[in-house]
Fold:
Amino acid sequence: MKLFSDLLSSSRPHQSNSNGPVIQQRRGIEIKSAREIEIMRKASRIVATVLKEINSIAAPGMSTADLDKFAEGRIREMGATPSFKGYHGFPASICSSINNEVVHGIPSPKKIIKNGDLLKVDTGAFFQGYHGDSCITICVGEVSSKAKDLSRVAQEALKAGIAQIRPKNSLLDIAGAIEDLVTANGFSVVEDYTGHGVGRNLHEEPSVFNFRTNDLPNVTLREGMTLAIEPIVNLGEKNCRTLRDGWTVVTKDGSLSAQWEHTVLVTSKGCDILTDRQI
Structure:
């Protein structure tokens, strides 16, 4: 996801990344060719497979470092490179954020998953020059009804946003559908981070915001765009802060947070979910 405040000023310059995929210079919004789309399908299938497997093995007593090791191993076994590891210095192959952690949680052998945790796992795979990117929220064991509702609404918000994806619709159509569903359920949309284009770079244009705003370009969707749609929903207030590690973002009020994300392709008739875990 992109940091919203960075987008309002100037985007972070792309730079060489010695520990992971090379970060290419910004190219604006890219329309993918048929060849590029097929590669992205493969990259996204790897991501979907890894997240499906993590969802099945995550359990109380495991550490988030255990999940990270598993994810990196599986991504490499399938012929890809972890998109996140080394990206702007991030030290792991997944982001693992628990309960009030919103995004960018760093896996650690000291962070043990507990019964009742709300665990967000975000990962990406770089395959033959292209990325796939997706995130799931896992209700570990017996979670509270509020946690279940929060995860459900965040997932429904993702589906509502995706339902608006078709040529000639705009980013505001996606954002409005997400925001309306979240607020109707009494939760708040995190505004500090947005979705993004995805392809040769993990983060490309456009910025795919999850709330109505006039501060970012309201791009009209075109066939061949590939986008990461990723609503982040808080149980309490929308405000967040970053911890001393420089990565982990938490809710300011300590409330729970949930996130779901898919990489999608805009098609002539609507869209295709490239990271669909049901395939």
Q: What stands out?
A: DSSP finds five helices and 16 strands in the chain. Residues 7-18 have pLDDT under 50 and may be disordered. Residues 141 and 259 are 18 Å apart (CA to CA). The chain has one domain: 2-8+27-273.
